[in-house]
Design goal:
By secondary structure, the chain is mostly beta strands. It has 1 helix and 18 strands. Strand 11 and strand 12 form a beta hairpin. It starts with a strand and ends in a 5-residue tail after the last strand.
């Protein structure tokens, strides 16, 4: 089930045509849940790839509340062309890297296998075609392309059940994923009125935050804060 919270951002119309940038930080307000350690002992190759304990990536918050792996993107905007460069998901240490990935329709996605073990890549889109194929340790690269824009869906490994990545296919380049510092940048936005969505896999769609910002040729800042709903 797709889960998101959203914020509406009004980007003011001007008489001239400009392209501006939108930057910001996504934070979490509250006590972060305890980290969950992944058990990889079902495959000795996976366990040997890590010196320290490996934790789930579904909720990564630093000591300052900065929130990683959050999609931030515009809607009601489109682009006619896909980028010529390809996107990459790597299977490294029996983990998907990145955990959250945005890609444009028509853009090539290269799936790499950096591990000396067998993986089975199972993508579960609903708009695009579902895919399911194996990558033995001797197969280091596969490529796929998504033809249509689609909301977030899961790519998982049927061999290693803890492996999961979230992918969203866009019909424009105006999206970003927050880093470990919670920061994002969306560049080259045409002036106009947009809705901006912030998505994080552990949150539902019950809260909508509304903010307004004007953008022309300058950089503007917009921050998002996630928090647990208060108990009634």
């Amino acid at each position: 089930m797709r889960k998101f919270i959203s914020a509406i951002v009004i980007i003011g119309l001007t008489t001239a045509s400009f392209a501006g940038d939108l930057t910001g930080t996504v934070t979490y307000d509250g006590k972060a849940p305890k980290k969950k350690t992944l058990r990889m002992d079902s495959d000795p190759v996976c366990g040997a790839a890590h010196k320290d304990a490996v934790h789930t990536e579904s909720f990564i918050v630093d000591e300052y509340g900065n929130f990683a792996n959050v999609f931030v993107y515009l809607i009601n905007i489109s682009s006619d062309t896909a980028p010529s460069e390809f996107a990459v998901i790597d299977q490294n240490g029996c983990m998907y890297s990145p955990h959250v990935l945005g890609i444009q329709a028509g853009q090539e996605l290269k799936i790499l296998n950096s591990d000396q073990t067998m993986h089975n890549i199972h993508g579960l889109p609903k708009v695009n075609k579902e895919f399911n194929f194996g990558m033995p340790k001797t197969v280091k690269e596969k490529s796929i392309t998504f033809k249509k824009a689609e909301d977030v869906f899961v790519i998982k490994c049927d061999v290693h059940p803890w492996m999961k990545s979230y992918v969203q296919v866009f019909d424009h380049p105006y999206f970003a994923v927050t880093g470990l510092d919670g920061k994002f940048t969306i560049s080259g936005i045409p002036d106009g009125d947009y809705e901006v969505i912030a998505w994080q896999e552990k949150f539902g769609s019950k809260r909508i935050m509304t903010q307004s910002v004007s953008i022309g040729k300058d950089t503007q800042t917009l921050n998002f804060t996630f928090s647990r709903p208060k108990k009634k």
